[in-house]
Amino acid sequence: MHEPAAPRTLADDPLAGVAALPGVAESVDAARRACEELRWHEAYRRRWREVRAEAGLRSARGSAALDGARVPLDVVRALAVGEGPGRDPRGTAAPGLAPQAAAEPAPGARSAPDVAVAAGALRVAAEVERLMPELGARGAAALPPFGQLAARLHAAAGRGWVADDDLGRLRTTQVPLDLRGLGAAPSGAEVAGRLDLLNRVLRETRAPALVVAAVVHGEVLALRPFVAGNGLVARALSRLVLTSRGLDPTGSLVPEQAWSSAPNPYLSAAAGFATGTPDGLAGWVAFCARGAVDGAREARTVADAVLAGRLTTGG
């Protein structure tokens, strides 16, 4: 007769060490309070889909800006409805985007490559929002295996500006072209193993959603598993984890707004995570928590605008 398995304890959790670092519990509490306060905004009673959609636009714009592609919000909004620049080079619209009317960058966009990256960020936002549970849904959202999910998001992000052969494929011998400020990236041979480990961690951990999202975000930035577009993928994965694990059921946090306005602290905190030191890990979790608080503030701005019927097209 087999004895029943012993129940898992916090000490058995693969992220228990991160969750127990100094300051992490306080960071988790700060993010939780901000998200709880946001949840009860009047706009989420009936118009949460509008808030989430607008937040997705702003998230995409900020994420693209963090990768150096600074495109005005009105251009991003036009891309989303099919009236702006950013036509797919093969003449087909991206999932979630209407067919584009023009291929030249609009005034205010620095270049066609910037617009291509912004369009990729929009496609990633659309993919993530398709996977998010509806506000008020019960139970955890079922997500694809991590490797498949990351590849799917990368294929969406990179279409039109990353080589077709590299879309959704882990790099092998190549050196990543982005995030060079984080130092040397792990070899291609190491990437697959570490992503597999991350997949196992995600299956097993019961750590707070903020901690899980921060680890996923930081690890993808550190690994840079694809030849380019790693930042877009990392931030999209973080957004999805925060919502699917219940910290941000509204799916409308916009931390990218604050991060893109001051990218150096973002990169510095990510570099700290990549060191793997206790201070670096705790500092990154605290940074992500501040991002959640700032992101909730921006989401409240969006929610106010939705209720008032005054979403602006500038920015």
UniProtKB/TrEMBL annotation:
Q: Please give the Gene3D superfamilies that the UniProt record associates with this protein.
A: Fido-like domain (1.10.3290.10)
By its UniProt entry, which Pfam families does this protein fall under? Answer: Fic
Renumbered to this chain, region (Disordered) spans 82-109
Per UniProt, residues of the Fido domain are 145-290
The family database entries (InterPro entries) matched by this protein are listed as:
Fido (IPR003812), Fido-like_dom_sf (IPR036597)
Residue ranges under compositional bias (Low complexity)? Answer: 91-109
PROSITE patterns the record matches: FIDO
Spell out the protein name for this chain.
Answer: Fido domain-containing protein
According to its UniProt entry, this protein's organism is Cellulomonas cellasea
